[in-house]
Amino acid sequence: MTRIGTSDLDVFPLSLGGNVFGWTADRDTSFAVLDAFVDGGGDFIDTADSYSAWVPGNTGGESETIIGEWLAARRPRDVVVATKVSQHPVFRGLAAANVRRAAEASLGRLGVDVIDLYYAHFDDESVPLEETVAAFGALVSDGLVRHVAVSNYTADRIREWVGIARRLGVAEPVAIQPHYNLVHRNDVEETIIPVAQEFGLGLVPYYSLASGFLTGKYRSTDAAGHSSPRAAGAAKYATDHGLRVIDALQQVGDAHGASITATALAWLRAQPTVVAPIASARTVDQVPDLLAGARLELAPDEIELLSRVSEWTPTTA
Predict the structure, then answer these.
(1) What is the CA radius of gyration of the chain?
(2) Which terminus of the chain has a smaller tally of CB atoms within 10 A, N or C?
(3) Tens digit of pLDDT for each residue in 105-154?
(4) In the 8-state DSSP scheme, what is residue 172?
(5) Which phi and psi angles does 127 have, rounded to 5°?
(6) d(CA 117, CA 21)
(7) Would you call 189 exposed, middle or buried from its count of C-beta atoms within 10 A (0-12, 13-18, 19+)?
(8) Which CATH number does 2-215+262-298 carry?
(9) What residues does each domain of the chain span?
């Protein structure tokens, strides 16, 4: 178990991504994936109120609804659920009134009395940050939310949020959710990890497997030819450099009898301030590798090898 920042939330060191629920996983499959995750020791689920509004016929909130129905049916003990606000078609942005209405709607879909971890999904610079910070603080003081967090914020805006929260005397963020993985490192390592260390925040990275690229499924530069809805996202990593990363992951994983997926997650878990990478599973068969990634411990030289082979330096004029 790992502690999320300065909070009282101790979680399994991998978060199950709920973005696929109601998208590439229907209700029954989603229930089976959730069952397998919890049966295997998992207890941390990540979703957002906007999942999956991008699917034709969906309106947003489908993932929360499925998770809420599963919670009601299974009544698991000590499961931590994180969700987010700002992107739902009906609840866009981070104005105070909208944040309150969106949180109440999420509580209803999830069927819970309190949201364990509530993220500002994307920064909304059209709203004064002080208004947003105060709105999140009020959710905590009113008992609708246990802890607040930020996702896709710059380091400067995170520092500003913390400063405002301290001045107002309201709940400070305990976590940051950035895009971070072996083939997408520089910005997080250069700017976000330092601010996390400064304020004791835990990182809960999304795209931990680079849209599936770090599963090893795409072993050539023709990744775009795959039929998966996420293949286009993986294709951009299927370069010579990216494939060298996959080869190194296989080399390290083979030494442990572990998959490429589990090894990529283990590397990410070993990075400073990282609490629990987020990874999703479309099928029950994909769950064991995720659970293994939360338990695999790499040696320092293996972490260094993967860090070295995945290092990217921008070209200079």
Answers:
(1) 19
(2) C
(3) 999 999 999 999 999 999 999 999 999 999 999 999 999 999 999 999 99
(4) P
(5) -115, 135
(6) 19
(7) middle
(8) 3.20.20.100
(9) 2-215+262-298
